[in-house]
Amino acid sequence: MKSFVVFFVILLSGAFGTLQAQGYRAELGAMGGLSSYMGDANAKFMHNSEPALSLVGRYHLNQRFSLKADLGYAAISGNTIGRSELYPNGKEISFHNNLLEATCQMEFNFYEYGAPDYKPGSSRISPYVTAGIGMLLFEKGEQWKTTACMPIGIGIKYKTPFRVNIGLELSYRMSFSDQLDNEASSADFQLDTPWMGQSAWNKNNDHFAELKCFITYDLWYIGSNCYKE
């Protein structure tokens, strides 16, 4: 995808002088945690949680803004068991599906994120917000289908002295499909239109939330700045 090209462009600086500290243009690492389906069979946040994993990369435009790309896997599950009276004809259904996702996001740090010894006034810790677009690959029976998605999220990050960044992120992934909760074994009832088009506005499409920790490693050295009194 074009959204990942920027993460493979090497930007290095030739200014290697007397160094007090060093800076890096990008990060690469992994995220891991939990995912939770939000749709016709579930309205409780982080209910029926399943595993979620992804590779993540950041390209820093400056200390406030970064472009972020991730390529991830998530599982989602849900059921109407014990609540069949809420669905037409008392139908019960359960599902467990796998998702593959690729996104490109813009990330904004509330503080100037970085090593203070590299640039005075920088903060090793910063909350942030993120939003973007992506593509989602999901199971529908024995086939795989695609749909667009829009991730939005909040998080907090910390830069260690060892070129390692750690953090926690909570995101909400809005899809443009109402078929993420498809169950192949059910022939007469599906959750995409359980009320035959009379669903509430917030149940028209399926979404899922993710709560993940991450660890990344700084890449692409860009020199250092010296500051004099």
Report on the structure:
The structure is a single chain. The protein is mostly beta strands and 229 residues long. It is built from no helices and 8 strands. The chain has strands at 24-38, 50-60, 65-79, 94-109, 125-140, 143-159, 164-175, 207-221. The chain has an 8-stranded antiparallel beta barrel with strand order 1-2-3-4-5-6-7-8. The radius of gyration is 21 Å and the shape is elongated. The model is unreliable at 1-22 and 195-202 (pLDDT under 50).
How much helix, percentage-wise, in residues? Answer: under 10%
Overall outline = elongated
Total count of helical runs of at least 4 residues: 0
Binned strand content: over 45%
Structural class: mainly beta
As residue ranges, the low-confidence spans are 1-22, 195-202
Order of helices and strands: EEEEEEEE
- Radius of gyration, CA atoms, in whole angstroms: 21 Å
Q: Biggest sheet, strands in spatial order?
A: 1-2-3-4-5-6-7-8
Q: Report the mean per-residue pLDDT as an integer.
A: 79
* Strand segment tally: 8
Characterize the main sheet.
8 strands, antiparallel, barrel
Distance between the termini: 47 Å
